[in-house]
Structure formats: structure tokens, C-alpha cells
Amino acid sequence: MNHRYPFIVVEGLDGTGKTTLRKGLFRLWEGLYGVTPLCVLTTNFLASDRAAAIIGGKYGPNAGNRDAYLSAVAADKRATLDRVVLPHRPVRPVIADRWLLSELAFFAVKHGMSVSETYEALASQLTLAPDVTLVLDLEIDTSMSRAQARQGDAVRADWDVHDIQSRVRETYEAVVTKPDGFPLLGDVVRLDARRPRSEVLLAAWDVLRERRLVPSPAALADGGENHV
After folding, report:
1. What are the residues facing 191 on neighbouring strands?
2. What is the pTM for the complete model shown?
3. Which of 150, 154, 205, 208 is the most buried (most CB within 10 A)?
């Protein structure tokens, strides 16, 4: 038994239930094992000197800031791995709300970069792949309807539109169907987000159990450590 907890990524279009799934996994770890997971985001602003490039590239992408933004994203992910993910894995699971797949889609849609070009640039800074990337799959109309029903200002007029979301989903599909070409995504598993959210959570938990990413009942009964 390896003395470390898993690094889990949840990916999907806006409105597919990523936050709900992340919260559900969080509660299962706490309730079943008394372990509080650490949750991180796509961008965590841990490479503080790159913050301006990250904000400019994300909210005002153009040809002039593309390379600086890509470099800043890579630096931020490297800092997140080194300062947060790796230090915490011996004591708790780490769950990321989006990670690498979303970056491949963003640069494909907003900058016309091939996923392989973006992947190569980011991979040069990534030292660790997630144990599993869970991709919530849902039709565009349904995901957009769910996203628009949320409270607050989470919907972006330049991103949450049918054409853009269709292209994002196409990018997801191109990557997910050829996971061997993107090893830093880890083990990629697609989940049907049309199902009730309780069923999606159960399916995700089954994925973790099947891959031995959660402690076995036998290990807990024997009083073993809660590490996997």
C-alpha cells in the first residue's frame, strides 16, 4: 500500500456539475475516513509574479499576450504542484476543479493552438500527473441551461455561448478519445453527467475504488492507516 493519497481532477463544461461532484467527494472522504481533502482550482496564483499575465490572458486573450499567458499558466501549475499538491498528498487527497484538459481547450478555442502544441508547452513544467481525471460529459444545450440557472456572475458572455462551448466540447472529445497522447492527464474516465447527481457521485467513487485510490474496507477494519 502506497503511503499517499490521490490527486483527483474533475473536468467538464460549465454546468455539468463539477462543483457538486467535488463537494460530494469531499464529504465522502470526510464522512467515511475522517480525512479532509484539499481542493485547488485551475489557476491558484501561486506564481505571484505571473498574476498580471494570468489575468490579462484569461479575460482578454489576444495574440499579443498568448505566449506570456501560456508561460504564466505553466508556472502557476508548477508552483501549485510543488507548494500544495505534493506536500499534502501524504496526509490528504487533493481534488482539482479543472486542471490540464481545460487549458488545452482554452488555447484551442481562443488562440487556435493545437492541443499537442499547448500540451507540450505545459508538460515541460508539470512534474506530476493526476491519478485520475474525471470528465463530466453533457450535451451543450443542457450544460448551458444549467450554467445560466446558477446564481451570481459565473456566466461569461465571451465564453458561455453555444459556438464556444461546442468547440470546447469537441476539444475535450479529441483529447479524451486519445488519452495515451496526453499522459499528464493521468487515467481519464468519462462520466455521464445526464444522470442524477447522486448517481454521478457514486460512479465517480466507484472509479476511485476500482483503481484502489481509496482505502479498502478490510484495511480500515484491521485498523490500518487511511493511506492508499
Report:
1. 136
2. 0.91
3. 208
